[in-house]
Amino acid sequence: MVKLSCHHCDYSWNYQGKTKYYATCPNCRYKVRIQPEETPKPELKRRDLEPRKILSKEKKAKKLIGIAAIVSRVIEKHQHDKSMLIQILLQLQNDFGWLPREMLTEVSKQLEIPLNRVYQISTFYKAFSLAPRGRHLIRVCMGTSCKVRGATTILDKLQSTLEIEKDQTTPDGRFSLETVNCAGCCALGPVITIDGEYHGNLKVMDTEKILAKYK
Questions:
Q1: pLDDT for res 38
Q2: Closest among 50, 31, 29, 43 to 1, alpha carbons compared
Q3: Quick one: pLDDT at residue 210?
Q4: pLDDT at 158
Q5: Is the Cβ–Cβ distance between 112 and 106 less than 8 Å?
Q6: Looking at residue 63, what is its pLDDT?
Q7: Averaged in consecutive runs of 10 residues, what is the pLDDT profile of the chain (215 residues)?
């Protein structure tokens, strides 16, 4: 609504029309110019500004910290390629030592793949651990060649000496104990590896002497 005055007959009225530049005087039908400063300006409402604010916030990259940042660096290195899931998990395992639940959740979120798929891969391969490992990782070969040469007895002795079961870690965090289906050196059975170092043709009495080398 605009307050107008006719310069011809001095009649004044409240103009509510839609034209922007001229209005017709109701009294004498004289054309009255609507001054630019008298043109009603649309009122900006708060809700009109909100979408712009939201967009500006979305444009700002969120700074990741902690486990999310660790996962992000590895995924970026592999160019967010979903087919590289195993390689991504392997690097995270090597860098972090194990794969906590929060890390698997971040991998699922950042690669945009189902969490159960990430868990399926991380529990299928022996290379991955979902619990903290000890400073030294012992792997006992349970392949056929090693088994017939006493691998089961070697495993029992290690469990007794370390006071843990396979897939567990000693309370002091010194050793973790696992089994593998084949260590790849059947002629040397029974075989164990500690931190990737092979110990073959083992006798039960050899185990404590070997463990003593790893502090």
A1: 43
A2: 43
A3: 94
A4: 96
A5: no
A6: 65
A7: 75 72 71 58 51 47 75 92 94 88 94 94 86 89 94 96 92 92 91 94 94 91
Q: How many helices (H) and strands (E) does the chain have?
A: 8, 9
3-state class (DSSP) for residue 90: helix
Domain layout of the chain by residue ranges = 2-38, 66-124, 136-211
Q: Are 193 and 214 in contact (CB under 8 A)?
A: no
Torsion (CA) 104, 109, 111, 112 in degrees, nearest 10: 130
Sign of the Cα torsion 58, 63, 66, 67 reads: positive
Cα distance between residue 107 and residue 75, in whole Å: 8
pTM: 0.56
Are 135 and 174 within 8 A, CB to CB?
yes
The residue whose two tokens read 């007959």 is: 9
**In terms of DSSP bridges, do strands 136-141 and 175-180 run parallel, antiparallel, or are they unpaired?**
parallel
Q: Please give the pLDDT value at position 101.
A: 92
Q: Which CATH number fits domain 136-211: 3.40.30.10, 3.40.1060.10, 3.60.15.10, 3.40.50.970?
A: 3.40.30.10
Q: What whole-number distance in Å separates Cα of residue 102 and Cα of residue 53?
A: 31
One-letter amino acid of 180: V
* pLDDT score for 95: 85
Q: What tokens were used for 206?
A: 């050899």
How far apart are the C-alpha atoms of 88 and 137, rounded to whole Å?
A: 21
